[in-house]
Specification:
Order of helices and strands: EEEEEEEEEEEEHE
Strand order of the largest sheet: 12-5-10-7-8-13
Bound molecules: thymidine-5'-diphosphate
Number of strands: 13
Number of helices: 1
Strand content: 35-45%
Structural class: mainly beta
Shape: globular
CATH topology: Jelly Rolls
Largest sheet: 6 strands, mixed
Oligomer: single chain
Length: 160
């Protein structure tokens, strides 16, 4: 799994003059089967969340309200996504280091996950993350080395 596997996915939207409705369900259009939902809210300005990777967990992040930035790092490349609509979500594949910051006031980050909470699935130390990436066959691409040049990319803002 590499950064290229992490991507923005459109969430179905039923528009209605009474208010719009979106839904997420397991199926061919979604990258994993859903086991857990949690959400971040009341995030003070300037806070940062995440700062870890997961060994096996697959996650899907949605800005239910407001906006925030998700910085992803697969040990070789880095990419930043700005989430600001409840009908787009970001699929974060396993073994991706993530940080979330730049939360707008009143924002809510909902996370749909492929498994129940398991602290053993977390990699909370960045050097452990890099070791795992390089020593256990989890490297995101066979041809790169930790010291090779890293690419940084910022994904453009989502349009309304
Ligand atoms: P953590 O995943 O580190 O938060 P974040 O990545 O959003 O900054 O979780 C923070 C704390 O909450 C940690 O003590 C574990 C606990 N927690 C649960 O008990 N259940 C859960 O489903 C999640 C996501 C976290």
């Amino acid at each position: 799994m590499a950064l290229a596997d992490c991507k923005m996915i459109n969430i179905p939207r039923i528009t209605d003059p009474r208010g719009n409705l979106s839904f997420i369900e397991s199926g061919p259009a979604f990258p994993f089967s859903l086991k857990r939902v949690y959400y971040l809210y009341d995030v003070p300005g300037g806070s940062e969340r995440g700062g870890h990777a997961h060994k096996r967990l697959k996650q899907f992040l949605i800005a239910m309200s407001g906006s925030f930035d998700v910085h992803l790092d697969d040990g070789k490349d880095e990419k930043t996504f700005h989430l600001n609509r409840p009908y787009f979500g970001l699929y974060v594949c396993p073994m991706t280091w993530r940080r979330i910051d730049n939360f707008s006031s009143g924002s809510v980050c909902m996370v749909v996950a492929s498994a129940r909470y398991d602290e053993d699935d977390y990699v909370r130390d960045y050097s452990d993350f890099m070791s795992l990436r390089w020593s256990k066959g989890l490297a995101p691409g066979a041809s790169f080395r930790p010291n090779s040049s890293r690419s940084r990319q910022r994904v453009p803002l989502q349009k309304a």
